Amino acid sequence: FAATNLTADLFILSGLLYILGVSVGKIAAHGEFGPNVGLANWNTAPIFLGTAVYAFEGIALVIPLSESMDPSVRHHFPALLAKVVSGICCFFVLFSSLCYLAYGDQVEATITLNLPENNATTSVQIAYCLALLFTYPLMLFPVTSILESQLLPRSTHNDPRMKWRKNLFRCFLVLCTTAISVACGEALENFVSLVGGLCCVPLALIYPPLLHMKIVGSHPNRDTTFLVIGVLAMVFATTMAILSWKNVSSDYCDDDS
């Protein structure tokens, strides 16, 4: 996975730099911000929580990364992790703010749809597609490993029937993810918020205090506080994503009619 993921990272980096350049250039060329720029869009603000917490989707890799480090330098990992997470948060704020200031309330859930139609934009869109294609096997690998160990019977590595069962099962998972992407493509922001509230909030705010309470147990009040906040955030973000999804669907129906 190393070569394909490095290639995908380069594609994504070039795309981000291009989008930032176009957004800043648009603001500079017009000498003003996009239409209807405001502090917040309160109609869709409730789904922001799930979308923001979606950024924690990779938090489950923290422990494996720490364990894979050389013991002589492992003590530097917490400080390095804090710097990396802080840098990513700052970049998220910078990137989203510049794009919103450039396009205002006309900004799309997928920012590449706001880019001008030219060869450079087409190249960026193709690069993003290739980046998703290259990283998809790595993203699916832990899912298949966990599900196959639970759903498929154990057998030897040389069993051809087991290999075909795994191949069919993995094809089924790919088809499921394809169907989900097609069905949720028109409400991407709601789907991201739903995944963030239902899956990423527990990863960020519920499971860590539970594990800390079980393994260490030295700060039960603090762990309980984070646990309550996590449960409330999960319920709120998931509920608002589902309720606002109905509004989005009805808006599409009204537009079509």
Overview of the structural elements:
The longest helix has 37 residues, at 220-256. It is globular and about 65 Å long. The chain contains 8 helices and no strands. The chain has helices at residues 2-30, 48-53, 62-68, 77-103, 119-151, 160-184, 188-215, 220-256. Helix 1 packs across helix 4 and helix 7 (188-215) packs antiparallel against helix 8. The chain is an all-alpha fold and 257 residues long.
What's a concise summary of this model?
This protein has eight helices and no strands. It is mostly helical and 257 residues long.
Beta-strand portion reads under 5%
Q: What class do helices, strands and sheet pairing give?
A: mainly alpha
Mean pLDDT, to the nearest integer, reads: 84
What's the SSE pattern? Answer: HHHHHHHH
Radius of gyration: 21 Å
What's the story with the biggest beta sheet? none
Number of strands: 0
**Low-confidence blocks of residues:** 249-257
Shape: globular
Number of helices: 8
Q: What is the terminal-to-terminal distance? A: 47 Å
The residue fraction in helices comes out at over 70%
Features:
about 260 residues; mainly alpha; 8 helices; about 75% helix; globular; disordered C terminus
